[in-house]
Amino acid sequence: MDVPSLRPALRLAQRPRPARSLGSTVLRVLVPRALVFATLSGVLLVGSAMAVSPSSAPAEALPRVAPTWSVADRAAQPDCVPTASWPEGRLGSAVVVHRFSDDATVRLPFLEAWRTNHNESEADDLWVLGVCP
Length: 133
Fold this sequence. Notes:
Strand order of the largest sheet: 1-4-2-3
Number of strands: 4
Order of helices and strands: HHHEEEHE
Strand content: 15-25%
Shape: rod-shaped
Number of helices: 4
Number of domains: 2
Distance between the termini: 102 Å
Helix content: 25-40%
Largest sheet: 4 strands, antiparallel
């Protein structure tokens, strides 16, 4: 290997660098990072805007007003109480439910209401309003 041919390269590497100003250092360091950040943020925002929530249901599928225990229910079922007043963990023999299929409030045996709410179809689901001993 020829040693004299390496000497000019070594002299260039040993030269002191010119002093850079603070402004040029900031531009050299921050601008590329800001561009990468802006690009990634844009991609994530577009991705989240295009995402569809699987749990969102059409507005017409949701009940407009949740049915609640009313004075009429109390008069029709005097031995029943609202669900919130029933002790947790204790089963009742029957429940007062609201059926959305025909918009009726009826009393059903507990097991029948359980089977209806836990079958494959969501069309016949019930909203439990009260519990009967």
